[in-house]
Design brief:
- The chain has 369 residues and is α+β, with helices and mostly antiparallel strands.
- Helices cover 23% and strands 33% of the residues.
- The strands form 4 sheets. The chain has a 6-stranded mixed sheet, sandwiched between helices.
Length: 369
């Protein structure tokens, strides 16, 4: 199947700079999928979207829509719609006429354009405000109008550049639900730029991680969370722990002890980082035989409906989420269960990674941990 959007070796530089903002980015977005572009500020996410939309011209590579090279095509001829963090609506037009604008430009009569606009306003639950002027709407309502107008243009690809970032948490969740509903009805192809890993996992089919202008990983949401390409990806996805140690076969040796790695581990023998998903850790009694490692509680605080405990293991402090009402307190000894599904090892490329001879021993025999 031809991808709805393909970026083929995309390179972009700002005028007067030799440093690429986008460095040979290859990305395919299947028809009907939602891909979240995740990365830190300044990583090139928005620039990538602008190149796809035709607002910036890349220095190299190609942009293809449905297999057609549109790299030099004007934005209005690409079949894309772009919604930004700040809704760019016409303040002199009513809500309904804002949404009808694209149809009017294509030559539809006012009646036809408004009838089409009503359909999309229904989808974003704002038809009752069709006669209102834009300035009379709240920020969230304006963003709904922007989405309706973008979809009414009938784009092959909908580009969303952090459209929900400025909203309060409750409204953001409502917009996530709305986007899911729109996808179920219209099945658009969507590319969403975000720096929020929770948002990416809530609305997208896959996550593409961009760091310093490079695409460092792209895969299904669960895959990227469970198998991050490195520490940077792990931390962008909310990971808290990267434990230095050594991989020997399918075992990682570190200050946490010897931990079995997932069966599909691809980390070569040698210095490595154990990336641990803290939300999968489980607190047990210090004498519980199920405990993978043991330590002492050195801190506790609330995070929403949960408590967060800091368990010191000497060289490492693990963050463990527990339900409120638990009896563990600072100073208590505790055990921590670290499931194999909560860890992933990657080569350690940091300075001093080779100075770990004390952890390198004979490779464990089959079944030995």
């Amino acid at each position: 199947m031809t991808a709805a959007l393909t970026l083929d070796g995309l390179v972009h530089r700002f005028p007067g700079s030799s440093t690429p903002v986008l460095d040979h980015v290859d990305l395919e977005v299947p028809v009907g999928d939602c891909v979240a572009l995740l990365g830190p500020s300044g990583s090139g996410k928005s620039t990538l979207l602008r190149c796809a939309a035709g607002l910036d011209t890349p220095a190299g590579g190609r942009v293809l829509m449905d297999g057609r090279d549109v790299t030099r095509l004007a934005p209005e001829r690409r079949g894309v719609s772009l919604v930004s963090q700040r809704p760019l609506l016409f303040p002199h037009l009513a809500v309904r006429d804002n949404v009808a604008f694209a149809a009017r430009v294509r030559g539809a009569s006012r009646r036809e354009a408004r009838a089409g606009a009503d359909r999309y306003l229904d989808l974003v639950q704002l038809r009752h405000l069709g006669r209102r002027h834009i300035n009379a709407l709240s920020g969230g309502q304006q963003q709904r109008v922007a989405l309706a107008r973008a979809l009414a243009a009938g784009p092959d690809v909908l580009l969303l550049d952090e459209p929900f970032t400025a909203m309060d948490p409750e409204l953001r969740l409502e917009m996530h639900d709305l986007l899911e509903e729109l996808r179920a009805v219209l099945e658009p192809t969507v590319v969403l730029v975000t720096h929020d890993h929770d948002e990416a996992s809530a609305v997208a089919d896959s996550i593409a991680v961009i760091v310093d202008g490079r695409l460092v990983q792209h895969g299904a949401v669960d895959e990227v969370y469970a198998r991050p390409a490195g520490e940077t990806v792990h931390r962008l996805l909310g990971g808290r722990h990267a434990v230095r140690g050594v991989t020997c076969g399918h075992v990682h040796r570190s200050s946490l002890g010897e931990l079995a790695l997932p069966a599909d581990s691809t980390c070569p023998d040698g210095p490595s980082l154990l990336l641990v998903r803290h939300e999968a850790l489980r607190l047990v009694a210090a004498d519980d035989p199920a405990a993978t490692t043991r330590g002492r509680v050195v801190g506790t605080r609330r995070r929403g409906a949960k408590r967060v405990l800091e368990v010191s293991l000497g060289a490492e402090v693990l963050i463990v989420e527990v339900q409120p009402g638990g009896t563990s307190a600072v100073g208590d000894h505790a055990g921590v269960v670290v499931p194999a599904t909560a860890v992933w090892a990657v080569p350690d490329v940091r300075d001093g990674a080779d100075d770990r001879s004390d952890l390198i021993t004979a490779r464990p025999q089959h079944g030995e941990v």
